[in-house]
Design brief:
CATH topology of the largest domain in chain A: Carbamate kinase
CATH superfamily of the largest domain in chain A: Acetylglutamate kinase-like
Family (chains A, B): Belongs to the aspartokinase family.
GO molecular function, one term (chains A, B): aspartate kinase activity
Oligomer: homodimer
Strand order of the largest sheet of chain A: 3-5-2-1-8-10-11-9
Number of strands of chain A: 16
Catalytic activity (chains A, B): L-aspartate + ATP = 4-phospho-L-aspartate + ADP
Strand content of chain A: 15-25%
Number of helices of chain A: 15
Keywords (chains A, B): Amino-acid biosynthesis, ATP-binding, Diaminopimelate biosynthesis, Kinase, Lysine biosynthesis, Nucleotide-binding, Transferase
GO cellular component, one term (chains A, B): cytosol
Chain lengths: 452, 452
């Protein structure tokens, strides 16, 4: 069986919902659908989730929220009208919103999670009712009924391992099932939203729970590009990529499929395919455990993310001092900073982190390191871009590193850092911000256009 | 003024001592000499330090040590006879050895330090007396008199910062001074030897103390080779190298001058020259704070050390987990392991250390990491060679990395790791053991023979 998930733009209006149901109904293996809240219908539109945030702001101000309330309901009214459905569902939706506002108006974090859940929840109810009315027996299943049990901290749901056994029972239904994405229910029976990745994570959890043969993730692109199409003209779409490669690419800026959603899948080797709702016949990108590697696809993709900061620390005879690096990392931990890389020389170490990790406490961190660690030199550089060249086969092919450094040298790009080897499937380069787009272009050309 | 230090082979016999004194006396700026214990006179010879160790073993056994005792005295008798000196010094030496054995026979660590100090100490007394008898007023200064005050832990002397002010007073002597290397005196008035680098460290401490203009370190080679002459045929000698470069080269196997001896010098920018006692007119290698860089000398040297072990750790979403790396390093610290590098991927980290750091406790370390850190994969690789390409100018010249990876790729050498950037003056490559000599050769050819 297959679990299919549709993103916000795929379920933004009646026309899109009909496309989505054609896809869902056309394959009897597609037995469970995860839906998002209605997204933008056109570039200037406001997506439902943002309408709900506006409603929430008014409620907690507190201020008159009637107008914001109605704009949320109108989005669903618009869909229901175009689908020519009965309007009784709208009365349910109105009642639910009112109920959440009354119940949680003194508990803002709970209120926010409850209101946000409506975006997906109403859409799931609506689409299930519509599909049934079209003659396909379809059942709406709430996260409570499905058994998507999560931890209780607002906006930070983590699935409980015990949930999976309950989710497996979804296999027993005769009807097709539609489940809203983005939230679960805590053991204290609170609605709690997932921190990132919106509905992707629900799809992944359900796919693992029912032990699906495939998790189909429908979006508005026909797969994952080998490089950012804003940087490289018309890049190729990746046909097949491993979980590990996907994670490395996501890290440095690829955002089509949230890498955290891979976590429930990779241990059980449930493959994912990223497809386009508007071109469902396109093969899309498959995310799998192992892939075949030919010389042309050694490198699966190239990504670059620009928002990194690096701390440089020098201390003579650093490598002889047991515990020095641990002490520095202990200070970062005290400030709740997670770092990404720590390349080192004999007497020096650089610690690379996302700029948002340290921005709010930079001076305190520098002062604490100076006071506690007796360093010879300490400096900070905010303008680092991290370029990742990702490919499972790279390390077995002598000279791949050389092909890439050649392309960069010919383009006169200075490498501030190179880190290769810890991960078997990527090479990391530290670059000046201003070189980053050019670097992606020349490596893309070297690897895919000139042939490696 | 200049401080000069002579290594063991330079003061191994009467003929060498005459050479050394010709050098010392030929330049009136050479006012302080640091001497080593007599080294090997020919390849099959035993150096004095090893004769003393044999004596020590017999004393602590305890067993009859008369024969070992006499062999030590004979080394000095041989020199005294050849120099046609009076033998009264030998009686002093005999008395001193007996006294140390009596005083410390129940305190083995103190006994070892006291006996070892005799190797250098007797030679300094002898050479000072001889030079005076030749008409050059020369004074033996003991480390006690000089003020080489050190910490009290046996075999692990560290100079006390307060010693330098006392050492500065050595400038006041009219005579030439000869000081034995290798040991200092603790504030508890114990003889304590330096842990590494034998007499180099004494020379560096004295040179800093007297604020010398130059520290001349005489050995049996005419300087530092750009690569190991056992690997590369007749490599060039480096004319000038910075402290930082020297340290990086020493780290990975260059052993002409012990890198720890640079520590007292580098902050005060006292230059060092490595020269050959047997060819004192050769210019040698100067170790300085800054050097001029031309395109031919961007890379100052290439070294490779073979005895590294690497721990590979994989954990999904590692980079999101604040404190994960610190936890691993805390475990290493518990086992008193100092690591050298820690290259990382998104979900993986490799920790590189010298094999002798972990050999004795490998299983315990692996078990502790498994038990405490919830890792996905953990493996260990013992066959890692670390190749360092060192040069102050490398990072300012685009394409240096590329020249090197090109040479390695053409030689079909697989790079297990690349780490560039934390140190501004080196690139590190992780290689298979079996590739290490070939790698040094091809990079040497690329950089110095073909011209970079």
């Amino acid at each position: 069986m297959k679990v299919v998930k549709f993103g916000g733009s795929s379920v933004a209006n009646a026309q899109q919902i009909n496309k989505v149901l054609d896809i869902f109904n056309s394959d009897k293996e597609r037995r469970i659908m995860i839906v998002s809240a209605p997204g933008k219908r056109h570039p200037e539109d406001t997506k439902t989730t943002d309408l709900i945030l506006q409603l929430y702001e008014k409620v907690i101000e507190p201020s008159d929220y009637q107008q914001q309330f109605e704009r949320v309901i109108e989005r669903y009214a618009d869909i229901i009208n175009h689908l020519k459905m009965k309007t009784s569902l709208l009365e349910d939706f109105t009642r639910t919103l009112h109920q959440y506002i009354q119940e949680f108006k003194q508990h803002h974090p709970r209120l926010l999670d409850a209101l946000l859940s409506c975006g997906e929840d109403f859409n799931a109810q609506l689409i299930a009712a519509y599909n049934t009315s079209c003659g396909v027996p379809t059942r709406y299943i709430s996260p409570m009924e499905a058994g998507i049990r999560v931890t209780d901290q607002p906006h930070n749901a983590q699935i409980l391992e015990t949930a999976y056994a309950q989710l497996f029972k979804l296999r027993d239904y005769e009807e097709k099932l539609i489940i809203p994405g983005f939230f679960g229910i805590s053991e204290q029976n609170h609605i709690v939203t997932f921190p990132r990745g919106v509905s992707d994570i629900t799809g992944a959890i359900v796919a693992r729970g029912v032990e699906a043969d495939l998790y189909e993730n429908f979006t508005d692109v026909s797969g994952i590009y080998r490089a950012n199409p804003a940087v490289v003209h018309a890049p190729e779409i990746i046909d097949e990529i491993t979980y590990g490669e996907m994670r490395e690419l996501s890290y440095a800026g690829f955002s089509v499929f949230h890498d955290e959603a891979l976590q429930p899948l990779y241990k059980h080797r449930i493959p994912v395919v990223i497809k386009n709702t508007n071109c469902p016949e396109d093969p899309g990108t498959r995310i799998v455990h192992d892939r075949d590697i030919d010389t042309r696809t050694v490198v699966s993709g190239i990504s670059c993310d620009k928002h990194f900061t690096v701390l440089h620390i020098k201390k003579y005879l650093m490598n002889r001092q047991v515990g020095f690096a641990r002490k520095i990392l202990g200070i970062l931990e005290d400030y709740d900073i997670s770092f990404d890389h720590m390349p080192s020389g004999i007497d020096s170490v650089s610690i690379i982190m996302r700029s948002d990790q340290i921005k709010h406490c930079e001076n305190e961190v520098l002062t604490t390191i100076r006071n506690q660690c007796d360093v010879d030199e300490l400096s900070i550089d905010h303008d680092l871009a991290i370029l990742m060249v990702v490919g499972e086969g790279m390390h077995r092919i002598v000279g791949t590193a050389n092909q890439i450094t050649t392309a960069l040298a010919q383009a006169n790009i200075n490498l501030k850092m190179i880190n290769q080897g810890a991960s078997e499937l990527s090479m990391m380069f530290g670059l000046d911000l201003e070189d980053s787009d050019k670097a992606v272009q020349v490596i893309y050309d070297q690897v895919y256009v000139h042939e490696i």
